[in-house]
Design brief:
This protein is α+β, with helices and mostly antiparallel strands. The protein has two domains: 2-81; 128-207, no CATH class. It is built from four helices and three strands, in the order ααβββαα. Strands 1-2-3 form a three-stranded antiparallel sheet. α2 crosses α4 (186-207). The radius of gyration is 53 Å and the shape is rod-shaped. The two termini are 94 Å apart.
């Protein structure tokens, strides 16, 4: 395209020179100066000969420029087509990834259901054993100072046959006033704190090979 511009400029400059020397020749003839007129006409002819070559060069450059523009337009169209296809592929990949995530989620839900079912069976077994088992506690309180005492609670868990399943021990400082007063509510707190350990003993008993 730059070559087209350059050759067009040379053609225009050459045509301007041809017109200029044509005017010079006319004025020389009008002034009766035939020798100068012939010189100007000769120069004009030379310029016209050069101009023919320049015109050919410009025509070739113009044709190439047209082809280049066509190639550029086609390339731009192809790029837009590829962009559209890329966006379509990205969309398809996003859909596929979403489907894959859903499939994994479905598998996970199925697996979770199986685990929950197994846990529920274990929980039922533990509840049954807990209902049949006896949990006894031994309390021992040692004063620390005028306000606090150390409360030691030992829980002994036995199965329905009276066989020891295991025992756990709690040892915590407590206010003397709370320990000497009503155990309503306080005893629930102690038992609740021990419940996790009792359940662990039951779980070990459940899973122990018979």
């Amino acid at each position: 395209m730059a070559e087209e511009t350059r050759t067009k400029r040379l053609v225009d400059e050459n045509q301007a020179e041809v017109i200029k020397y044509t005017d010079y020749a006319k004025k020389a003839l009008e002034a009766g100066n035939e020798n100068d007129a012939r010189i100007f006409l000769t120069k004009k002819q030379e310029l016209e000969n050069v101009g023919a070559g320049l015109a050919t060069s410009y025509a070739s450059a113009h044709e190439n420029a047209v082809k280049m523009r066509q190639m550029h337009d086609k390339l731009a169209t192809d790029i837009e087509t590829l962009k559209s296809r890329r966006e379509m592929i990205k969309s398809k990949m996003a859909v596929a990834k979403t489907q894959e995530t859903l499939n994994k989620a479905t598998d996970s839900i199925a697996s979770t259901k199986g685990a929950m079912s197994s846990f529920e069976r274990m929980e039922e077994k533990a509840d049954k054993m807990l209902d049949e088992a006896n949990a006894m506690s031994e309390l021992n309180m040692t004063p620390i100072d005028d306000r606090m005492a150390r409360l030691v609670v030992k829980w002994i868990v036995k199965d329905p046959a009276g066989k020891n399943v295991g025992d756990i021990e709690q040892s915590n400082p407590v206010p003397l006033a709370a320990a000497k007063g009503s155990w309503a509510g306080f005893g629930d707190i102690v038992a609740s704190a021990a419940s996790e350990g009792v359940l662990q003993l039951l779980e070990q008993a459940i899973n122990k090979p018979r």
